[in-house]
Amino acid sequence: MNDTVGIVIVSHSKDIAKGTADMVRQMVGSEIKVAFCGGNPDGGLGTSVALIVDAINDAWSPKGVAILVDLGGAETNSEMAVEMLDPERRDLVVVCNAPIVEGAVMAATEAAGGSSLAEVRAVAEELSAD
Amino acid sequence: MSLQPETFKSLVKVAAEQVIASAPELTTLDQAIGDGDHGTNMKRGFEAVLGKLDAISAQPFDEALKTIGKTLVMTVGGASGPLYGSFFLAAGEALSHDKHLPDDLAEVFASGVDAVSKRGRSHAGEKTMLDVLVPVLETLKTDAGQPDIVERIRTTAAEAAARTAPMQATKGRASFLGARSVGHVDPGARSSCVLLQAVCASLEGRA
């Protein structure tokens, strides 16, 4: 099996989420599992736990899923979404403390090489290190 | 005093209606120090709660609180969804484990406050909803059984929300503003106050 870690991009703006996913696919390749979501339950700026849960399941990989977020509510809602997953999936999903665009590209690049979830997360979070 | 199902139903209804009515005020507060969506987010969440009012009030209290929590989590669309949602989910969970209303109200409320603190990785003093929830919890602990407990909670909530104005935010969106967050009441503290005061008004039969 050549499973790779899945990448989920969660922005307040669907346009930013989609644009980030487009960049990941162009720069890293279309074999990587990328899902994205953005917008509140009414479609305005914000995030939706239900959409995040769907995105995680879309990008699902037995090796796990790394989530990249933009601002506060996206992080809180992503953490909530992780807790609402089936129990056997919860421990295989991480929310990365990283800038959304650079973090997604770096995480996807690392994932494409077959790295573990911990390695993918570490590469993304290095961007936030001082 | 025991909590009757019809009392609970009107309590949830009044609380939801008051939050919805306060949406413009919450949005104005949030435009000052946040991203301006707290009012519309809370309105969307509590409209969803109102839409399920009959189903919610037909459930046992623990399940009803969990349904309210899950509804807020799924519909609010901002950080306040998981924060308020976690409060109700944890309070419901406490009721599922040998806690009873009204005797264990302080403990049930404490479970909710603890969940908010964990979810937001925050504590009182950081200009958040916890700056209302924590003082109210203290009042519940110290003044339980007093004949005017409802009045005391109302006063505590109002004073606590007002005290967030001079605070500098260190958590949440308002923390980006640093010193400029001083001088504005925190929107989350205000929405917590609105909710608690609506519950008080409902319990006193004034709404």
TrEMBL record, chain A:
It comes from the Bacteria. Its EC number is 2.7.1.121. It catalyses: dihydroxyacetone + phosphoenolpyruvate = dihydroxyacetone phosphate + pyruvate. Pfam families: EIIA-man (PF03610). Keywords: Transferase. It is an enzyme of class 2 (transferase). Residues 4-130 form the PTS EIIA type-4 domain. The keyword Transmembrane does not apply. Homodimer. The dihydroxyacetone kinase complex is composed of a homodimer of DhaM, a homodimer of DhaK and the subunit DhaL. Component of the dihydroxyacetone kinase complex, which is responsible for the phosphoenolpyruvate (PEP)-dependent phosphorylation of dihydroxyacetone. DhaM serves as the phosphoryl donor. Is phosphorylated by phosphoenolpyruvate in an EI- and HPr-dependent reaction, and a phosphorelay system on histidine residues finally leads to phosphoryl transfer to DhaL and dihydroxyacetone. This is phosphoenolpyruvate--glycerone phosphotransferase. It comes from Bradyrhizobium iriomotense.
Automatic annotation (TrEMBL), chain B:
Signal peptide: none annotated. Keywords: Kinase, Transferase. GO terms for molecular function: kinase activity. It comes from the Bacteria. Residues 6-201 form the DhaL domain. Gene3D superfamilies: 1.25.40.340. This is Dihydroxyacetone kinase subunit L. It comes from Bradyrhizobium iriomotense. The lineage of its organism: Bacteria, Pseudomonadati, Pseudomonadota, Alphaproteobacteria, Hyphomicrobiales.
